[in-house]
Specification:
- About 0% of the residues lie in helices and about 50% in strands.
- It is an all-beta fold.
- The protein has a 4-stranded antiparallel β-sheet with strand order 1-2-3-4, with no helix packed on it. A 4-stranded antiparallel β-sheet has the order 5-6-7-8, with no helix packed on it.
- The relative contact order is 0.15.
Amino acid sequence: MRALDMRMPKRRRRLAGVGVLGALVIGLGWFLAPSASGAAGLPTESDAGPSGEATLVAVSCASARWCVAVGYSGLDTLIESWNGSGWTVSPSPDRGATSSLGGVACVSTRWCLAVGSYKDRAGVSRALVEIWNGSSWSIGASPGLRAGAVSLSGVSCVSARLCAAVGGAGTGSLMESWNGSTWTAVATQTPSGRGNLNGVSCSSPGSCVAVGNDGGRTLVASWNGTRWSTVPSPTPGRWGGLAGVSCPSARSCLAVGNYSTGTGSGSSTPPGTLVESYNGTTWSVVPDPTPPVALLFAVSCLSASFCQAVGEYPDTSGSFRALIQHWNGHAWSVEPNPSPPVAYLYGVSCVSARLCQAVGEFAPSTSGARSYRALIESWNGRAWST
């Protein structure tokens, strides 16, 4: 997308392949690898995965004793599961030369669905679907898609027989529905025709909301049980996009992302966080207290008065720190969290006001070539910890 610059470090580009960052990075030169100082406080509940390097992109909790986080380790998919007391790596299948997972939805301990992408023999990105049956992960049926590069970046399931997945196909947005056995492509038209959808949330079989960006503007699409349609959403500044959405009900949604008042050039104004809410009728911008330069990637809402959003921001030394914000129904507040000096959070899931899980990556070393590892932070109702 011409309005959004994608000049970022190699590792950030890998995440862009599953739709997490590529469509949302609006700040330009500032997003290049930051300098860092100080000693890293290493998380105690993280797993580097089998290859040493790892990133967790999304997480879904079905109960206090069952959460699943997905991402990639090296060139392969990475899946970790929470049993109420600790995280373990689950064997996961791969396709092609490289495989990544960018979204996951769990309806119970016996059924989860994860989506992402893989590179085929020709190096073209294809949709990847994996399903958990209560004992193991397997490759699931892939959506019937248009020709060209395809990636899935988000998924939401009301049951094992009803899911919605979103992403991008070529230069356009992609929506797919799952009926328990097959995928169906759902046609949608975006204003510019260059849209990409990053996240989706379904509160019932007849109500889903997907968010992303379209030609440098925010993009929101809604499902009424019969069809998808784009709906108006504000874009402050000159460029903006939405990365994640959570809808506790059909009349209450919160979406997060970022925007910029810059021109789109390398010296463009760095991005600030963007939060938008839906009241059952219209979308509107919600003020939030983040630092002047920051990104939000995901949000999880239990109700209209309890949400947790995650992302990143650069501190005074130029190092990126994990960012967590809490919504109480009236205002946002920044939550203290044990972020290492170099850390990013990309996904969050709350099963109750006393249990949330946030996932991302961190760098054990703040100097030289960085080897990123999976980062998991947990909320116990009082504080965040690793």
